[in-house]
Amino acid sequence: MNVPALTSSGGCRTAPVLKERGQREVFCGLTGIIWLHRKMQDAFFLVVGSRTCAHLLQSAAGVMIFAEPRFGTAILEEADLAGLADAHTELDREVDRLLSRRPDIRQLFLVGSCPSEVIKLDLHRAAERLTVKHAPHVRVLNYSGSGIETTFTQGEDACLACMVPVLPETQARELLVVGALPDVVEDQMLTLLAAMGIGPVRLLPAHRVDETTAVGPNTVFALTQPFLGDTHAALQNRGARHISAPFPFGEEGTTAWLAAIAAEFGVDKATFAAATDAPRARARKAIAQASEHLSGKSVFFFPDSQLEIPLARFLTRECGMTAIEVGSPYIHDALHGPDLDLLPAGPQISEGQDVEKQLDRVRAARPDLTVCGLGLANPLEAEGLTTKWAIELVFTPVHFYEQAGDLAGLFSRPIRRRSVLKLEAAE
Ligand code: SF4
Questions:
Q1: Interval 205-258: pLDDT, tens
Q2: Would you call the peptide bond into 310 cis, given omega within 30 degrees of 0 as the criterion?
Q3: Is 73 in the pocket of ligand 1 (CB under 6 A)?
Q4: Are 17 and 100 in contact (CB under 8 A)?
Q5: CA 50 to ligand 1 center in whole angstroms
Q6: pLDDT digit string (tens) for 162-219?
Q7: Positions of the chain with pLDDT under 50
Q8: What 3 state SS string does 392-425 have?
Q9: Thinking of the domain 29-150, which architecture would CATH place it in?
């Protein structure tokens, strides 16, 4: 079948990009542990870090009193700087203690952080040493969640990328879907693919290490999240091929994403229509209802989650908004190109951040809605701008047809709230 031809007024793929390399206002990559530990049910995330890292995780994820948590922090004190060999011995002791107490752990991630004493520790070597010690029951891997190197969604990218080299080899022609989705959304996606006769579908991350996720030269993979640049590169290094498509946000994005996979697997037009017509109609209706307050409004994206480009495409094409600036921490043509093709020409596309300059631009533009990180939202609200926290978009189910109305609703709620407040103030 042919991928439906979506048209755009020129698109933004070749538009000039404003590149900024100044001060950034983002959460660090440790944040990803909050959703990854729920998804990977036999994994444990051991942050090697400071008390700040422990506080971030505890306040963001909540402390589970009745359940055994699947993340923790090994706090490296200043004194540990004195001897790195001692730090390695202490880390090994912590891991031994943890694994002997928790036989349910099958994958252990050592997660690096920012403090200089942690940066000096070679966690890759530690992971190799501990894998040898605890194999075959536990696989130990490492990645960095440091705020110096990562934005908050890059924690997931770094985690998935470090798993790719140890995935088993396969020669099977299989679809691998990459990106941690809430279970309910993942089930909807698998149902849609099954209705088109596509399967078996492998998932990265899998729920458990024993599951059959493998990779090889006949693997084709689709990304569900636009922040998986390193994972994309790691999969290509294993010989897998990327199915390039817009991301599955909104009715159009979901249809285009599914259509690209359907084309790859030779699904005929009638089968595609039978699987997608009803949910497409539901999605369109839900978006129309939820976007009533969005139509004709302007939006400005600060670079934060790396979801900005596909979301700007959704808001402009399906909700009637106008984008003033679309900032993204990084722009990868292989990942974001298809969405940039569809984003109507006009907005300033920016990559990276110089927060003071960007604040000047948003104050001058005074958009109806500003999508930004938590740290910027309150000051901007105080200046009379209406904001949406970017982090909410990662914690809320927003992919595929059945969530398309909720996705529009996430953006329309702050605008509605602001107009209600204005009405009350006028009374
Ligand atoms: S990794 Fe760095 S930015 Fe993140 S909580 Fe720890 S010290 Fe702070």
A1: 999 987 789 999 999 999 999 999 999 999 999 999 999 999 999 999 999 999
A2: no
A3: no
A4: no
A5: 8
A6: 999 999 999 999 999 999 999 999 999 999 999 999 999 999 999 998 778 999 999 9
A7: 2-3
A8: HHHHCCCCCHHHHHHHHHHHHHHHHHHHHHHHHH
A9: 3-Layer(aba) Sandwich (3.40)
Report whether residue 112 contacts ligand 1, using a CB cutoff of 6 Å. Answer: no
Rounded CA separation 409/196 (Å) = 29
Q: Is the Cβ atom of 373 under 6 angstroms away from ligand 1?
A: no
Distance 31 CA to ligand 1 centre (A): 10
Q: What letter represents residue 144's amino acid?
A: S
pLDDT at 176: 98
The continuous run of DSSP H or E covering 372 comes out as strand 369-372
Q: What is the pLDDT of residue 278?
A: 98
- Residue 80 · residue 87 · CB < 8 Å: yes
**CATH no. of 17-24+290-426:** 3.40.50.1980
| Ligand 1 pocket: which of 26, 48, 52, 374 to mutate (most atoms within 8 A of CB) | 52
Domain boundaries, the chain: 17-24+290-426, 29-150, 175-276
Cα 250 to ligand 1 centroid, rounded to whole Å? 33
Report the C-alpha gap between 348 and 27 in whole angstroms: 24
Index of the ligand 1 atom closest to the CA of residue 113: 1
Coil, strand or helix at 343: coil
CA distance 385 to 405: 24
Question: Is the CB of 113 within 6 Å of ligand 1?
Answer: yes
Among candidates 331, 290, 269, which has minimal Cα distance to 415? 290
Residue indicated by tokens 């894998």: 131
Calculate how far, in angstroms, residue 52's C-alpha sits from the geometric centre of ligand 1. 6
3 state SS of 2:
coil
Class of domain 175-276: alpha beta
Residues written for the chain:
427
Given a contact cutoff of 8 angstroms between Cβ atoms, the answer to whether 219 and 285 are in contact is no
Q: Is the pTM of this model over 0.85?
A: yes
Q: Would you say the CB of residue 54 lies under 6 angstroms from ligand 1? A: no
Q: How far apart are CA 200 and CA 174, in angstroms?
A: 7
